[in-house]
From TrEMBL:
Protein name: diguanylate cyclase
Gene source species: Pantoea alhagi
Record lineage: Bacteria, Pseudomonadati, Pseudomonadota, Gammaproteobacteria, Enterobacterales
Sequence ranges assigned to domain EAL in this UniProt record: 24-274
Range of the intact protein held here: 560 to 844 of 844
């Protein structure tokens, strides 16, 4: 199908294309209402110290529940939220919810929140975080912000300034999905990160492939050289867990150790199991 828009100007479109546009508009409208309609949920995935085998924190992972039982995963709506600017409103909700939830936990674990690169395009990120800390009363040292490595590439001076302000508040900064993008080693030196999370893809052939093993070992060494706390994400089995402990990776996260779960389930687990520790047999106990 095509439409004549005047002399020699033809716009071609297919019914699928317009359908896609309509669906996008509809989703954008619905997402814009998600906060006021109270449709956002935070799931928590535990993180363990690999040195002690004890849980010491959790990552907040966002879900959208426009109507039960539908649960929309972040990869299907965060990009739209970023393109439309809705991410700021959503992220304010996430930060506030995560800080309040963490105050309800029976242990003073830290809570880790993912920050979108778009939030670094504005000047007010540190002020927004400071406000949330003040309003909720969560001690700054219990909040960690995860930032994907690509964020640092575009406007390094501006990003550095914002990161320094965040550091001054006392929050921890961690590079997320390290090794999945284009950042060079230099930026680990340039930016004031406290931690590094290895991209999940490095776990795929680990520990069996010699090459995967060397690369993971290399990233851990690199992180240590920059005095960063190294976390492996995507740990799915006992062999990976044991080998990461053997090569002195600091922290671990993954389905083997615990899946992301609703906030209430996370508290329930903490209350019933107490301080979860990985037993000698390697099973989360
Ligand atoms: P991420 O920050 O790298 O989070 C880790 C993702 O890996 C999560 O997916 C988690 O459920 C999944 N995962 C954890 N352990 C395993 C494992 O052992 N195996 C496998 N295959 N996957 C594992 P999820 O929850 O779908 O989140 C996807 C991404 O969405 C996150 O990646 C993060 O970049 C983004 N995201 C999530 N919540 C937020 C948020 O509140 N704000 C922003 N800006 N982004 C968020
Ligand atoms: Mg993350
Ligand atoms: Mg990650
Ligand atoms: Mg990611």
């Amino acid at each position: 199908q095509s439409k004549n828009l005047g002399r020699n100007r033809w716009v071609f479109y297919s019914p699928e294309m317009s359908e896609q546009l309509v669906r996008r508009r509809e989703m954008e409208r619905a997402l814009g209402q998600a906060v006021v309609r109270d449709e956002l949920r935070l799931f928590y995935q535990p993180r363990y110290s690999l040195h002690s085998g004890i849980m010491d924190g959790a990552e907040a992972l966002l879900r959208w529940q426009p109507s039960p039982p539908a649960l929309v995963m972040p990869d299907s709506f965060i990009p739209l939220a970023e393109e439309t600017g809705l991410i700021i409103q959503i992220s304010d909700w996430v930060l506030q919810r995560a800080c309040r939830d963490a105050l309800n936990w029976p242990k003073p674990f830290y809570v880790s929140v993912n920050i979108s690169p778009v939030e670094f395009c504005r000047d007010d990120l540190a002020e927004r975080v400071a406000t949330v800390l003040r309003v909720t009363g969560l001690p700054a040292e219990r909040l960690e912000l995860e930032i994907t490595e690509n964020v640092t590439l575009e406007k390094p001076d501006k990003v550095l300034r914002i990161m320094q302000r965040l550091k001054a508040l006392g929050v921890r900064l961690t590079v997320d999905d390290f090794g999945s993008g284009y950042a060079s080693l230099g930026y680990l030196k340039t930016f004031p990160f406290d931690g590094l999370k290895m991209d999940r893809s490095y776990m795929r052939d680990f520990p069996h492939s010699q090459q995967a093993h060397s690369i993971v070992n290399g990233i851990i060494g690199l992180g240590k050289a920059f005095s960063l706390v190294i976390t492996a994400e995507g740990i799915e089995n006992a062999e990976q867990f044991a080998e990461l402990q053997a090569i002195a990776c600091d922290e671990g996260q993954g389905y083997y150790l615990g899946r992301p779960m609703p906030a209430a389930d996370f508290i329930h687990m903490l209350e019933t199991v107490g301080q979860k520790q990985i037993s000698e047999t390697g099973q989360p106990g």
